[in-house]
């Protein structure tokens, strides 16, 4: 429909379609034939707002916000951290899509209530397999930002030990082995949309595949879709009780993404242990980690390298989520984002809500 054909029509505010005047993008509008409290009749080449009930400044503010809306895709958006990243992005008026195997989360597993929060209705909860890029690539089209917020803390080997399928000695040897040979695939060698599942199904839930390869594959396809910024949720460090490959695979993912996709702004968040009252056990763990932080401080950080994440102050998960959204919106933020900067970004985001 041309502008001349709009003479008898009305325009209703939306963020899904754009009308171009003089070959320059203006506000996001949608055609409508139904009267609204605020209508924009086409009276000349220039469109003029003629508010019926709302003030001109209020309408202008709304249109400006909609025209500036960003599209965010959060892979792992149904998880503990990912769901909160979605929440803070929705609060900014962004167009948010969550990608996970489950779609919409079971809210009693990520919040303190089984009830569906009101903000979640603004999120598109999509299902996809991160090891099968063809299932999620279409969702990346038009995205401004992409977040990889998924991974595993313990491998399937651990589950085998607990269930009795593997002997404790054999299982623990696999977990704490420093060798990553034949455990993953190279997503950079794969054709567009090709699966990155390892030939051995037992290795599908290895650190190499889940923490590293899935992230590199996602970054590859995000770069192909000309996504502006890619945020990878890494970790601040390991811990004495954690297999060394847990952190080494995350560092490998950071390096691969930064070196292979330099035109895409890469952010590598390195949060410490995260907690929230909705997950009671995390509060107790946070207290233990906090005690380790105090002890590490009393020793002049002498045991910092040994203790890793266990010697770093834990953060509330909402702090990290708010910081991620703030970092994505700030073009100056790039590369590794350590704990102090995470706190600064979260504080900056909080101050904006006070304006």
UniProtKB/TrEMBL annotation:
* InterPro entries the record matches: ComplexI_NDUFA9_subunit, Epimerase_deHydtase, NAD(P)-bd_dom_sf
The transmembrane residues are none
What are the record's GO terms for cellular component? mitochondrion
Q: Which GO terms describe its molecular function?
A: protein-containing complex binding
Annotated NAD-dependent epimerase/dehydratase domain residues: 73-149
One of the Pfam families matching this protein, by short name: Epimerase
Q: Which Gene3D superfamilies does the UniProt entry name for this protein?
A: NAD(P)-binding Rossmann-like Domain
Q: What is this protein called?
A: NAD-dependent epimerase/dehydratase domain-containing protein
Instruction: Enumerate the PANTHER family for this protein.
Output: MIOREX COMPLEX COMPONENT 2, NADH-UBIQUINONE OXIDOREDUCTASE 39 KDA SUBUNIT-RELATED
């Amino acid at each position: 429909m041309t502008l001349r054909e709009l003479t008898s029509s009305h325009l209703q505010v939306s963020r899904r379609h754009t009308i171009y005047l003089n070959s320059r993008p203006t506000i996001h509008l949608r055609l409508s034939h139904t009267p609204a409290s605020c209508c924009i009749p086409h009276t000349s080449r220039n469109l003029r707002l003629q508010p019926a009930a709302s003030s001109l400044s209020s309408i202008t503010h709304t249109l400006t916000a909609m025209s500036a809306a960003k599209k965010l895709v959060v892979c792992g958006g149904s998880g503990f951290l990912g769901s909160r990243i979605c929440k803070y992005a929705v609060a900014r008026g962004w167009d948010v899509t969550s990608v996970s195997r489950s779609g919409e989360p079971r809210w009693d597993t990520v919040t303190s209530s089984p009830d569906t929060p009101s903000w979640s209705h603004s999120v598109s909860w999509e299902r996809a397999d991160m090891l099968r890029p063809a299932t999620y690539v279409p969702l990346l089209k038009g995205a401004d930002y992409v977040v990889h917020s998924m991974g595993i803390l313990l491998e399937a080997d651990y589950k085998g030990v607990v269930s009795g399928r593997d002997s404790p000695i054999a299982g623990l040897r696999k977990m704490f082995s420093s060798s990553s040979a034949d455990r993953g695939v190279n997503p950079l060698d794969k054709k567009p949309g090709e699966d990155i599942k390892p030939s051995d199904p037992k290795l599908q839930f290895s650190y190499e595949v889940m923490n590293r390869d899935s992230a590199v594959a996602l970054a590859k396809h995000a770069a192909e879709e000309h996504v502006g910024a890619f945020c990878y949720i890494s970790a601040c460090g390991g811990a004495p009780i954690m297999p060394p490959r847990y952190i080494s695979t995350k560092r490998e993912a950071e390096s691969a993404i930064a070196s292979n996709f330099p035109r895409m702004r890469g952010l590598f968040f390195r949060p410490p242990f995260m907690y929230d009252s909705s997950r009671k056990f995390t509060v107790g763990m946070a207290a233990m980690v906090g005690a380790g932080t105090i002890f590490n401080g009393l020793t002049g950080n002498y045991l910092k390298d040994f203790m890793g994440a266990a010697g770093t102050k834990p953060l509330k998960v909402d702090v990290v989520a708010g910081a991620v959204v703030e970092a994505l919106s700030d073009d100056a933020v790039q590369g590794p984002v350590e704990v102090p900067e995470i706190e600064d970004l979260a504080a900056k985001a909080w101050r904006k809500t006070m304006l």
